[in-house]
Structure formats: C-alpha cells, structure tokens
C-alpha cells in the first residue's frame, strides 16, 4: 500500500488502470493507454494494477468493475470512470485536470 501512495503522490498526474487478465474490455484498453502515453510522454504516469493480484487495493478504492480508470494529482483522486474510453477522451481528462 505504501508504494501505491508514493506512486499517486507524484507531481505529475497519475492514471491508474485497474484491470484483470480475463477481462476483454481491459485488453482493449492496453493499446489505447499506450497511445495516450506516446502522446503525453513524461507529462503523465500510467500504472496498471491487476485487481486479482491486488485485491486489498481494489477493495480500498471500491473497484467493482474492470477496467476502472482513476486519475490522481498529488495523491488526490480527481477523476474516475469504469469502462473503455477513447484516447482523445483520456487525454482531455488528463490535460484538463
């Protein structure tokens, strides 16, 4: 848990992707998140968290469905949404947060 709080307390926005290996829509998010990272580069950190391997963390953040994306700024959750989003939507959310 302490490593997670270090991750979300960065100066730049941190996008967390709660996913599961068995989840079809989660597999669709991977290339989209790669495009987001390619576009924004060092302006954002993107971290994928497997809910099956991190059940305690998923429970803490009340992740009920996957994929669930959360955006943190300086340790504060500023946005959250479940489901597949398009690259442009995610970039707009990150840059306007």
The secondary structure category is alpha+beta
SS elements, strand count: 4
Could you report the average pLDDT, rounded to the nearest whole number? 96
Largest sheet: 4 strands, mixed
**Percentage of residues in strands:** 25-35%
Q: Which descriptors apply to this entry?
A:
97 residues; alpha+beta; Glutaredoxin; 4-stranded mixed sheet; 4 strands
Chain-wise SSE layout:
Elements: H1 2-8, E1 14-19, H2 24-40, E2 45-50, H3 55-60, E3 68-73, E4 76-82, H4 87-96
Parallel strand pairs: 1-2
Antiparallel strand pairs: 1-3, 3-4
Helix pairs in contact: 2-4
Mind explaining what this structure looks like?
This protein has a single domain, classed as Glutaredoxin (3-Layer(aba) Sandwich). The protein has a 4-stranded mixed β-sheet with strand order 2-1-3-4, with helices on one face. It is an alpha+beta fold and 97 residues long. It has helices at residues 2-8, 24-40, 55-60, 87-96; strands spanning 14-19, 45-50, 68-73, 76-82. α2 crosses α4 (87-96). The chain has 4 helices and 4 strands. The longest helix is centred in the N-terminal third of the chain and has 17 residues, at 24-40.
In a nutshell, what does this entry contain?
The protein has 97 residues and is α+β, with helices and mostly antiparallel strands.
């Amino acid at each position: 848990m302490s490593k997670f709080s270090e991750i979300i307390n960065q100066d730049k926005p941190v996008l967390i992707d709660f996913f599961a290996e068995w989840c079809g829509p989660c597999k669709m998010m991977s290339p989209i998140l790669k495009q987001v990272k390619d576009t924004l580069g060092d302006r954002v950190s993107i971290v994928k968290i497997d809910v099956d391997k991190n059940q305690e963390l998923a429970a803490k953040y009340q992740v009920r469905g996957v994929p669930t994306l959360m955006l943190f700024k300086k340790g504060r959750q500023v946005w959250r949404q479940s489901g597949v989003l398009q690259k442009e939507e995610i970039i707009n959310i990150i840059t306007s947060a």
